[in-house]
Amino acid sequence: MSDTHSLFSSELAPGSAYPERPKLLIVDDQPVNIQVLYQVFGASCEVFMATSGQQALDVCRQKRPDLVLLDVVMPDMDGVEVCRKIKSEPEISDIPVIFVTSQNSPEEETLGLEAGAVDFISKPINPAVVKARVKTHLMLKIQTDALRELASVDGLTGISNRRQFDERIESEWRACRRTGQPLAMIMIDVDHFKKYNDHYGHLEGDTCLKLVAQALKESQWRGRDIAARYGGEEFVCLMPETKLEDALKKAEAIRQRIFDLVIPHATSDTADRVTISVGVACTVPDDQDLKRLISAADEQLYKAKEGGRNRVEGVST
Ligand SMILES: Nc1nc2c(ncn2[C@@H]2O[C@H](COP(=O)(O)OP(=O)(O)OP(=O)(O)O)[C@@H](O)[C@H]2O)c(=O)[nH]1
To answer: Which residues carry this modification: 4-aspartylphosphate (predicted)?
Structure first.
């Protein structure tokens, strides 16, 4: 095992959620410079290469590297511009960028740091220095990822939490507004859950919520969909680029799935088991507040409750 390999596999990966081979993107318009860095990291990292700024952005979007080593002076789009672009795209903005440059004046460094870079490495590179810096920033990325994960997951059920949902609905609202595509939202409430708690106890209530969440998680979602705990015994799902008709089908499948779990509910006025009521709303986002989508889903949920519970209601606005 090479020295470089042990640097990552024995010190970095064990005990962390980090992949044994972190993904590293090396960007330089001179292939010979890429080769030099490849010699250092080829054994320990999954290395991607790009010889232009545009290529670098494409690799970031498609491969989501854990770190970018970025040349500053390149034709077409220089490194500072590439870095700015990476930092302005929410999906890739958390990827740390280290500049590898022969221009190490304080002005250049300031410009790079202001563009969002985390560090600078001077050319010609010193392999030990590059390894040490990359390792430091990969470890920081592990910690940041772990914290972000912790902050976005609901403690009881393990699915996404309200904070994560709030962030996603904001970004999907913007994305669907740009493309003119519909955005659908499903709001779910467990029926007679107070009675469930009163009869079976709060701990059993918690177990019930976990089962509902698990069933939601295991429903077949598409790439950008998200299912989250909204609070208490309420759950929400977001389905970008989805028509009302398809969201209603999904909501009905979820309602049936929970019904089929056959979680006994002796004191429910609706059935002999736990059921859910579901409100669905769908809209093409405009420049109005996204709260109108949430309110519409909430109104439909209320309608489902009023209509006898264990049912789905929906509206297109
Ligand atoms: N066990 C448990 N109970 C919770 C949790 N969060 C909220 N609840 C309970 O969920 C119940 C919700 O009750 P209500 O809002 O009255 O609604 P409901 O009894 O489900 O009645 P309907 O919605 O009208 O069918 C309350 O008793 C809350 O205490 C939780 O994390 N665990």
So the answer is: 71
